[in-house]
């Protein structure tokens, strides 16, 4: 793991889950660090994905999941819902990396506020059925774990794509952005 996630306060399960989600968001944010718009939106691998597109997709996905979990699911049969999902993989002509970073911050704040206000992570929401999932009742705990899973999966994709763009790996970006200090390996010699 490129960054250390600090232990939660004793008994603060939601704090632990939010910290791990934030750590994965950080990997996506660092993947666009220092890139031009052209670099951030480039697709240098056989995939059609870019680091900016992945950041946008995870942000839009989190926004949609939190809306669903809050009791306002989009209808997966609605063409606008499908278009929103399809369009989430790339920046539109009027979108910028700084704009997506601002949206990412806003979505993260909203997620934290909503999760912190929940009476319990055992509270449930109804997930509509979709072609890939029959849907059903889910706990907020399940929802947060799903958000972590999605962010982590795409942060890994972003690591590979970023390295293809300019050779910078996840650890180098962690150190460059100050997300963690470079390790003092000499402590192992003591």
Automatic annotation (TrEMBL):
Question: What's a Pfam family in this record?
Answer: MST
List the InterPro entries hit by this protein, alphabetically: DinB/YfiT-like, MST-like
Q: Note the Gene3D superfamilies from the entry.
A: dinb family like domain
**Annotated protein name in UniProt:** DinB family protein
- Species the sequence originates in: Streptomyces bohaiensis
Provide the organism lineage as a comma list: Bacteria, Bacillati, Actinomycetota, Actinomycetes, Kitasatosporales
